[in-house]
Amino acid sequence: MADGNYYYSVKITGDDGTKYNSSAVAANVQTSSSVTETFEENANGFCSVDGAIENDHSGYYGVGYANTDNESGKGVDYAISVPSAGNYRISFRYANGASDRPAALLINDTLAASFAFTGTGAWSAFTSTNEISVQLRAGNNLVRLQATGSSGLANIDSLAVTGVAPTAGDCNGGGVIIEPPVDPVDPTDPVYPNADCADLINNDSINWRESSLQSDQQIIQCLAESLGKPVGYGEKATGGYNPNGGSKLVIITNNKPEDQILAAISSSDHNWIVFDKDDFANETAIMMYRPYCASSSMQSALGVNEATCRDPYAWCAAKGVSSSNCLVTFFNDELNDSSLPVRNYLINSNTTIDGRGAKATFTFNGFKIGADSSGASTHQSENVIITNNKFIGVGHTEDHNLDPDMIRSTGESHDIWIHQNTFDTTGDSAFDVKVGAHDITVSFNKLINVKRAALHGSSDSRPINQQITTTIHNNLFVTTDDNFGSSSYNTLRRVPLLRRGQTHMFNNVFYGYRKDVMSLRVGARALLDDNLFMNPVNNSKGDDLADWALSLFDDAIQDGSLEINNSYVFESDSTCSTSGNSASLDMAQGSVPNMLADYNSASKNAINSNKLSVGTDLRNYVMATAGKGAKTPWLSSYSEGKNNIIAAAPNSCQ
Fold first, then answer.
1. Tell me: the pLDDT tens digits for 1-39?
2. Whole-structure pTM over 0.85, yes or no?
């Protein structure tokens, strides 16, 4: 048998003559022994360097070495072809006469590993890195070594690849991919670290206990690894996953689901909460006020029994309210009463609420992470993840007495990741941060017609808010064209309204935000890198590019510091495109710290390797990955890769 990919399946004929075919399974056969192939500069397999081929220092092999420009993001590119998919070992020969020059290894646009490239003592002292194991696909593989520090790469003499018959590939991206004789398995599909895990998270017909992964720990490990790891200030959050064991999977069913959620979030055990895929196969409203209906005082205030209290439409029928106005009347009139016991329930430590694979929608209000009273912490929660959920409001009511935030981090709570959720027309904020909550990452969320996204610190007089730290990246903020000219949206948008603390925002995409994006008060600091703004040229306000370039941040600083780098506003059409003219939003006022320096090396490397410049690619990438049910982004090893994701972007953000 020759080396390569083979596909096998099982055919069964039943007693009645019916034939059944199993799905084909790929098998990789490798009988050949491993060899090491070295790829030197200006030879086959070497594609390019963001710099020059030099020979100023001795010790190199071949004609010289690759010396990149001294900037983060600069790199060296190779193309490697292999006969079959599998694990291969990679190392680099290099010299570094200076301090460490870290780099990321990207294979087919996906982060595969990192190298430190420590100092070798002299620029002529070449040595080799340790070998690392990487996954290569059958056929052509594009390999990029990319600097993650401002000094660029070390001097790179060669790349060595060890495995079955590696050869020089095609730098233009061509190459032969081995196709199966039948279609059940496509070798061009993404290669996932664990195929069973990929099936569980990607196939909604496989419920949580129906895969080969059976124990809670196995399933939660799959959920955690496929979700990926946060970067930035919330980089430590693991939520309900304890790598040392003891993680508990909580599967919410459609039998008073709010009560089940309340019980799970009230524990500090490692709980990873998911929703039964069968019970929530159709859109189902989750209303977290419902457990309060067991209270006699709540029933008395509403003048109904518990069952009617739990069903807004039953209450409306009892009170003669039309179904078309029911939810607005129930939530914004009847429940707009500070004497009612209804408030956001508290999420305790070590909790994940994961909405993947289900269509549960949190309606009207959400949760608080931690608790406070009069500006002081009364409960500190840590290690919380809220991901892949949909939160929808019932219209924005100014100063609603129940304060219906969707997610409120407070009381000095920390290590929080709010990731890939959808927030639609929320009654109050999408993700407030109050009373000293810190170390929070907000990533790849989609906000639709959210008037005020995030308060960071609720009072000028609270020094505790000095410790607020947030990273806000790759989120999609959309105000639809029908609301662009509405007076209710011509207000401070709070992205964020920040008091005392600091926020780092990068690679966010905005459409329909015409003025007053943020406000900085009481010494707040904000660093904005590579953010994209688009506004419709044809609009009811008569705005133009010059207006937006001035008004987006003109009044942002009341008392604070702001630095904006490589960020632009574009003229757009209704499809949210970057085809029109653009204007820079860059500015610097006050002293803003280098917040990237606060992150660990894994965060720094991942950000530097995956951050995009403002333009069409950023627009497409965020539109494809932001919000519940979107493509899995670069934070996860289960991502499909940048090019595939960009190609999958929807035509419009509206």
1. 445 444 455 656 666 655 455 554 555 555 567 899 999
2. no
Give the per-residue pLDDT at 186.
40
Distances in whole angstroms, Cα of residue 369 to Cα of each of 265, 344, 388, 413, 500 = 10, 9, 17, 7, 20
On the question of pLDDT at 183 being above 50, the answer is: no
* Alpha-carbon span 38 to 158, nearest angstrom: 7
Instruction: State how far the Cα of 374 lies from the Cα of 595, in Å rounded to an integer.
Output: 30
Count the helix, strand and coil residues of the chain and give each as a percent rounded to the nearest 5: 20, 30, 50
Q: Give the mean pLDDT of 219-229.
A: 97
Sign of CA dihedral 308, 314, 319, 324: positive
The answer to whether residues 353 and 346 touch, using CB atoms and an 8 Å cutoff, is: no
Among residues 595, 594, 586, 545, the alpha carbon closest in space to that of 567 is found at: 586
Q: Confidence class of residue 149 from pLDDT cuts 50, 70 and 90? A: confident
Q: Report how far apart, in Å, the C-alpha atoms of 312 and of each of 9, 75, 316, 616 are.
A: 52, 59, 6, 44
What are the strands, taking DSSP E only, across 137-233? 139-147, 155-163, 167-168
Q: What region does 497 belong to: left with phi over 0, alpha with psi -120 to 50, or beta?
A: beta
For residue 496, cis peptide bond before it (omega within 30 degrees of 0):
yes
Q: What is the pLDDT of residue 20?
A: 52
Strands 103-107 and 110-115: antiparallel
Tokens of 304: 């109904």
What integer pLDDT is reported at residue 177 of this predicted model?
Answer: 41
Per-residue three-class SS string for 533-547: EEEECCCCCCCCHHH
Residue 369 confidence (pLDDT): 98
pLDDT: which is higher, 72 or 283: 283
Contacts of 565 (CB under 8 A, 6+ apart): 527, 528, 529, 530, 586
User: 349 and 340 in contact (C-beta within 8 Å)?
Assistant: no
Q: Other CB atoms closer than 10 Å to residue 398's CB: what's the count? A: 10
What is the per-residue pLDDT across 299-356, written as a single tens digit (0 to 9) for each? 999 999 999 999 999 999 999 999 999 999 999 999 999 999 999 999 999 999 999 9
Q: Are strands 19-21 and 11-13 parallel, antiparallel or unpaired?
A: antiparallel
3-state secondary structure 380-436: CCEEEEEECCEEECCCCCCCCCCCCCCEEECCCCEEEEEECCEEECCCCCCEEECCC
* CB-CB contact of 502 with 457 (8 Å): no
Closest by CA to 290, choosing from 329, 335, 251, is 335
CA 638 to chain centre: 12
**Structural tokens at position 399:** 């100063």
Integer Cα distance of 316 and 305 in angstroms: 13
Q: What's the pLDDT score for residue 490?
A: 84
Which pair of structure tokens corresponds to residue 541? 């306000």
Tokens 């003048």 sit on residue = 303
Query: Beta strand 438-443 with 509-511: parallel, antiparallel or unpaired?
Result: unpaired
Report which of residues 3 and 155 the model is more confident about: 155
Beta bridge partners of 127: 94
Structure tokens that stand for 163 in this block: 């495995």
Q: Which residues, in sequence order, are bridge partners of residue 337? A: none
